Amino acid sequence: MATAKNRSRKDAVERQLPGWFNEVVGIGMIGFGLMLLLALVSYTPGDLPNWVGYGPDSTPNSPAHNIIGVVGALLAWLQLILFGAASYLLPLGLIWLGVAYAFMEGKLTRRTWFGFVCFILTGACLINVLELLSIWADEIMITHPGGVIGYGVGTLFFEKLLNKTGAVLLLLVAYLIGMIMLTGLNPIQFTKVAFKQFSEWNQKRKDEKSRLREKNSKKAIREAERKARLDERERAKEEVKKEAAEEKAAAKKVKEKEVAAKKAKEEEEIRKNPQVEMDLKEVPKPQIIDAAQRRKPKLEVGAKPFNKKKDKEKGISLATDAFEDYETPGFDLLSYDDSEEEPETNKDELLSVQKTIVDTLKAFGVEVTAGDITRGPTITRYEVYPSIGLRVSRITQLEADLARATRAERINILAPIPGKDTVGIEIANDNKVAVPLRELLQDEAFASAKKRIPLALGKDVYGNTVIADLAAMPHLLVAGATGAGKSVCINSIIASILFKFSPDELRFIMVDPKVVEMQIYGKLPHLVVPVVTDPNKVVAALRWVVNEMEKRYRIFAKCGVRNFDGFNSRPRPEKEEEPVVEEEVTPEEEPEPDPEVIESIARALEDGELGPMADRDEDELDFEDEIPDRIPYIVVIIDELADLMQTAPADVEMNIARIAQKARAAGIHLIIATQTPRADVVTGIIKANIPSRIAFQVSSSLDSRVILDTKGAEKLVGKGDMLYLPPGSAKLERAQGAFVSDEEVEAIVDFCSNQAEQKFEESVQESIEKGGGSDDGGADDVSDADEEIIQKCLEVIQQEQKASTSLLQRRLRLGYTRAARMMDILEDRGIIGPADGAKAREILVRFDD
């Protein structure tokens, strides 16, 4: 009775309310809910006033960053303190009630308000009991993710009373009940109605398909009958066309036989009387050029290719304190045997061979005119002028016949010679003339200022010196078979560098896995570290070169220069010597820090140049703060790449690729030599970044293509005969390599070692020893780029709460080798546990701490 009276009284009150009351209240609830939602979305602790206990110590944001202003910041803070992450349910619930009350003619009953309160409270309790969004709560400076209510009711009451499982089950049931009472939706009834509607729709679709299938079957029968009639007509037409095509093919075949017979007759006439209607090309008078004769160098006592004055005030980044009075070697260290009489050129013999070539070509119907003859140190080039209209491919097809006629050991045909309108036929000399290194070093081209790092390679067929510039290459690949002259070429390159640079201008890192080639240079003061012979330590040496390259680029960025030359030639302020006055600094009058220094350090930290301060030691920071006045070149020489690619192919290839891609502007250059030019040794990545190459004699054209991307090296005669691909050019140059004996190399090394004592870089040596001596492959020697990736790996592991190689591959888009290396580094640092089959690694640290 009382309930009926209350209900009738409530209905009477509602009838007395005006019609616009529901809309006004609903719109007000919607507006208030939107205001709370916007305040929560744009909430930041920096907007809170200082009188709030959870506010920041510094001055509040002015104006406030919150969309609703300071009031919005206070409202959001109050909600977050009370309900935590469940605060977002409060504005959403108010918006839902406002929409239902204003537009859907809903009623705000006690059931609705009870469900609303239960929905919010149980949500806060569930978030706190399940320990969700803890990191988010720390970021916005609230104590509990479920607020004070979630912590007090959920954790302290229900979890203590029912344990975590029972509390979660009870709160989840209460949460669903509150949501049903708030929205008025019946999930079970809704599921039944949805299933019923889906079943009716599915049945209707099946009936429609069956009717359509029946209709299509009748239509298919009629279509098949019509198609059969059309096929019969088409067959009749095809038979007629086939008969016509056969007649046409027979006529065409007869015509082709007639054309072939006519063509054969014309070829027979040309063979009997070749080019009767073509005149031979008018050519200049042939010359005999003897480029094999040695040039008589100036034998002055104490002569040097470079005479430079040392500036003792210059400071170099690598150790240079012991190289102030260093003098470069002189020409007297190189022997020049002029007592032996060189054989004179037998012009009659050269003309006889040329006549043999012309007659042999004429015998095969190829009419040519004799051209110049150039006798080089190793080969003699015979030039011929093809007649007008003659294809040069007809000459190259007769290579074996020309070799037989001239009795040559090996022959090579250049069709045509690059830059000329002649075809060159190269035949090896019976008596080869050596090219002494001293003759090349005394050439004007070697001392030219245009070449920053000149390399004396040899002499070409025309007697011109081949002087390369390592700085323009900027890297070099030398390959060839055993005994073809590769080691002598490396010795001449090193000797060329020693004649120009002192240890404070250029430093060497030599890698010699064979332990036979580079040991003679072990006493050089130019070495950064002793000659590296252990293949396991090479990866650490290359990794140090990569770190040195990145360090130099950071210095260039601080100085505002682009490359190595710009840094060494940058204008420097003149230093005035001032007397040093020592002043005692009392504790009361401490020197104030320079604001410019503080600003520069802050800018470097923002740009990521200094990296994580916790990962750097004091020596590293002191070095980066002190910018050197000048820095030297660094030349890395690897004598045998195949041995390294068998030990650690992935790491060696990756480090070589990084050096070859970026090290040019940093003054770091790479020289790689190998006697096994296979595709798995000289990989595509290495070739793509080393455009300059030198190829000596190889065993097959396949090896030549691996080195030069074209054939030709298999036709060389050995003993220094080489093909040189200069930088920025696709034209191969054939030359005879410079010769330097072991005695001359020892004399140069002894002279350099007597000038100054060796001063190795201890930090570099320790890094290499560490990288080669441990079984982990040098995991502790981590570059700055690897350190950045490790930080990203830690973020991924913290988010996912698990660690595996496949996870890092997917999230960071790393290759398997790189991701596995990152996992090894994290394991060595004690962050993750060892591998356990296919299971994820165990995380040994707490990121909250």
From TrEMBL:
TM annotation in the entry: 20-43, 76-101, 113-136, 142-158, 165-185
Membrane topology of this protein: Multi-pass membrane protein
Record SUPFAM superfamilies: P-loop containing nucleoside triphosphate hydrolases (SSF52540), Winged helix' DNA-binding domain (SSF46785)
Chain sites annotated for binding ATP: G480, A481, T482, G483, A484, G485, K486, S487
Compartmental location: Cell membrane
Principal location listed in the UniProt entry: membrane
InterPro entries: AAA+_ATPase, FtsK/SpoIIIE/SftA, FtsK_4TM, FtsK_alpha, FtsK_dom, Ftsk_gamma, P-loop_NTPase, WH-like_DNA-bd_sf
Superkingdom, taxonomy of origin: Bacteria
Ranges of compositional bias, category Basic and acidic residues: 762-773
Keywords, comma-separated and alphabetical: ATP-binding, Cell cycle, Cell division, Cell membrane, Chromosome partition, DNA-binding, Membrane, Nucleotide-binding, Transmembrane, Transmembrane helix
Acidic residues bias: start-end ranges: 576-596
Keyword presence, Transmembrane helix: yes
Keyword Lipid biosynthesis: no
Pfam families recorded: FtsK_4TM, FtsK_alpha, FtsK_gamma, FtsK_SpoIIIE
Span of domain FtsK: 463-705
Region of interest (Disordered), residue spans: 206-248, 567-596, 762-782
Subunit structure: Homohexamer. Forms a ring that surrounds DNA.
Family stated for the protein in its record: Belongs to the FtsK/SpoIIIE/SftA family.
Entry protein name: DNA translocase SpoIIIE
Organism: Rubritalea halochordaticola
Organismal lineage: Bacteria, Pseudomonadati, Verrucomicrobiota, Verrucomicrobiia, Verrucomicrobiales
